[in-house]
């Protein structure tokens, strides 16, 4: 069985859809302390810190998956919005641009450790202001990196996806499935 050390519903849903047996261990980690201006190293530092903090408290688990995602627009890093104003600022900055979703994961198994960084891009149309305000009012942006909801609000504004949809949702499930064998 795989243990998902994450509070993310999106990651849990990806594992369910992939028919991977797992147990979710809710683990809150505040990434605000990580200082790095490079989006690629930032997201990797966060996932390494998650691993470290989790294993300090829960060293008894095996077959553990850690993951984190950020959104990057013009080298600006966006994590989870903490309020409506922050979400609105993030979304207005994304409108009509190409945004990148960077998703890092660490898979720890008995006989191996996989460290992966995946990137997918969304080329977006400009957002409608009324639609944008409705999205903010709905609070559906909460717990979404960069307030991005590719399966919801952003869906009708996507001109093109370059990369895997699962990476955009927070976990490159294709890479995970290539390395994780439930029979281990």
From TrEMBL:
Cite the entry's keywords alphabetically. Answer: Cytoplasm, Hydrolase, Nucleotide metabolism
Q: Where is the protein found, in the record's own terms?
A: Cytoplasm
> Is Hydrolase tagged as a keyword?
yes
Its protein name is Nucleoside triphosphate pyrophosphatase
Q: Which NCBIfam families match?
A: maf, PRK04056.1
- Cellular component GO terms, alphabetically? cytoplasm
MF terms from GO for this chain are:
nucleoside triphosphate diphosphatase activity
Keyword check for Glycoprotein, yes or no: no
Q: Which InterPro entries match?
A: ITPase-like_fam, Maf-like
Q: Which PANTHER family match?
A: BIFUNCTIONAL DTTP/UTP PYROPHOSPHATASE/METHYLTRANSFERASE PROTEIN-RELATED, BIFUNCTIONAL DTTP_UTP PYROPHOSPHATASE_METHYLTRANSFERASE PROTEIN-RELATED
